[in-house]
Design brief:
The protein is of the alpha/beta class and 486 residues long. Helix content is 50%, strand content 8%. Helix 8 packs across helix 11.
Length: 486
């Protein structure tokens, strides 16, 4: 049965607030605040602060809480500020004791928050989060621990006591750039140099055409190729040569104008962009003269020159442009082992990750689940010496007939290894690893590390919820009652 409701909106006085003016302890932000190691957050935040007296900075809990909310909810910087202004639970999460109706800070502060929490700091917070929620984890002594250098006669770890399963994989967090082409990159260089010429033109007494070519014809020649669905290779190469000539003329014009009006007219941002354009011109001229399609440290974006092309070989994405992440998963918890803007082979890092696993848990893993990229001779020798089973086929020619035991073990390894593939998919579909919106290299690495940390917090919340539901089962209550009676 349906009854028509009143179409008129209630007044503000008629709307009743729940909980009698108190927050509910079942809210997710209240539960997440109990998981975050705030003392470690405070220590990492203090490292980025100077000791000079000045304006008081915002608290560490507010800075990290805002970044956590942004990643958790998939918001922009501006929407994060609005979310904090409207949600009392979010204000509780960032450490406020009284609800505030005004904005807590300007949206531009989010960039400074990401700078104050570098990627290394986020990884240390992630490590502390695992230690707080998994108290059974034992760390092995390292060179920096007290007493590790004194006791040189300590026996080596017993490899037969290896425990746990370590899953390894690498993925790419794409940056927010347009798919790069040589022609489009040179067109951006031409347009940027034309704007710089217009800026300097006002400080000169020159008259007439500002550029040594017709800007309309240059734009027209570029659009003729871009609008074609499948342009011919010769036509594209001819257009690239034309754009290279336009950029060369603009750079020569800028050099002569700067020598006349002085070098203080252009801003620091324009100087940085001009240096990038000069490097792009040298790279594109070298490839055009030598007839090559590759060069070292090739720039693919003027706005983000630190982004590099990562060859993936996937069907849907043979090339990705962003930072490469090396991830490991232990008991559903994800660790960020390495991240870099340059491409690297993840297979050579297996030994480093295994030693780091021993530092975290006190022993080497019993099994390492990884793909074929990790099965080189050095890794196989290391795993054999330390009693670790590395998944995957043997080196050399495959046997004609594989035993049923090997087939069953390979199937079980592939089934378990789906865990890290699933973590990569969740991080990209849900937590923003598929597109990093930050522009600066340091803030982009922080955002990627934050995605991993927030994903771990969500995993811990699900585990606690499952444990609570299991504790509420009647069988568990009878078990506790029997234990108390005994």
């Amino acid at each position: 049965m349906y009854r028509s409701a009143d179409k008129n909106q209630l007044t503000m006085d008629e709307f009743m607030l729940p909980f009698g003016g108190y927050l509910s302890a079942d809210n997710r932000w209240v539960k997440i605040s109990q998981l975050i190691p705030w003392d470690v957050v405070e220590a990492e935040y203090a490292k980025s602060m100077c000791e000079v007296e000045g304006r008081e900075s915002l608290p560490a809990r507010m800075a990290y809480g805002a970044l956590h909310i942004k990643v958790q909810e998939g918001l922009t910087d501006e929407r994060t500020v609005e979310y904090l202004r409207e949600n009392p639970y979010a204000q509780y999460f960032v450490g406020l004791k009284v609800f505030r109706e005004e904005a807590l800070f300007d949206a531009s502060m989010m960039v400074h928050f990401r700078k104050r929490f570098p990627s290394e700091a986020i990884q240390r917070i992630n490590e502390a989060l695992y230690e707080r929620t998994h108290p059974k984890a034992k760390k092995a002594p390292t060179d920096g621990d007290e007493g590790s250098e004194k006791d040189q006669s300590a026996p080596p770890p017993d490899d037969s006591q290896n425990e746990g399963t370590l899953m390894l994989d690498a993925t790419v967090a794409p940056a927010d750039i347009r798919y790069p082409t040589d022609l489009g990159l040179l067109n951006d260089c031409r347009e940027n140099t034309e704007k710089m010429i217009e800026t300097l033109w006002e400080h000169t007494d020159k008259r007439g055409h500002k550029t040594a070519y017709s800007r309309k014809k240059a734009r027209k020649s570029y659009m003729q190729i871009v609008k074609q669905r499948q342009p011919r290779a010769k036509a594209v190469q001819r257009a690239i040569t034309e754009q290279l000539e336009y950029v060369r003329k603009n750079l020569a014009t800028l050099e002569s104008m700067l020598a006349t009006v002085g070098y203080g007219i252009l801003s620091a941002a324009n100087w940085f962009r001009l240096c990038i354009i000069c490097k792009v011109y040298r790279q594109q001229r070298q490839m055009a003269d030598e007839g090559k399609r590759r060069c070292e440290d090739r720039i693919v974006s003027l706005r983000q020159p630190h982004v590099r092309c990562i060859v993936r070989g996937k069907v849907r994405a043979p090339y990705e442009f962003g930072q490469k992440l090396h991830l490991s998963v232990v008991n559903g918890f994800t660790f960020l082992e390495h991240q870099s803007w340059d491409n690297f082979h993840e297979g050579i890092q297996l030994i480093v990750v295994a030693e780091r696993y021993r530092q975290r848990f006190g022993t080497y893993p019993k099994v390492i689940l990884a793909d074929k990229a990790y099965r080189n001779r050095d890794n196989l020798r290391f795993c054999k010496d330390h009693g670790i089973r590395l998944s995957g086929p043997r080196l050399g020619r495959p046997p004609k007939e594989e035993s049923q035991t090997d087939q069953a073990q390979a199937y079980e390894d592939s089934r378990q290894r789906n865990g890290i593939e699933g973590r990569n998919g969740i991080g990209k579909r849900r937590y923003g690893l598929d597109l990093i919106m930050s522009v600066l290299p340091e803030t982009a690495t922080t955002e990627a590390a934050l995605n991993v940390l927030v994903m771990n917090v969500a995993h811990l919340l699900r585990m606690l919820l499952r444990l609570w539901r299991w504790m509420l089962r009647p069988s568990f209550a009878h078990l506790c009652y029997a234990y108390i009676i005994d």
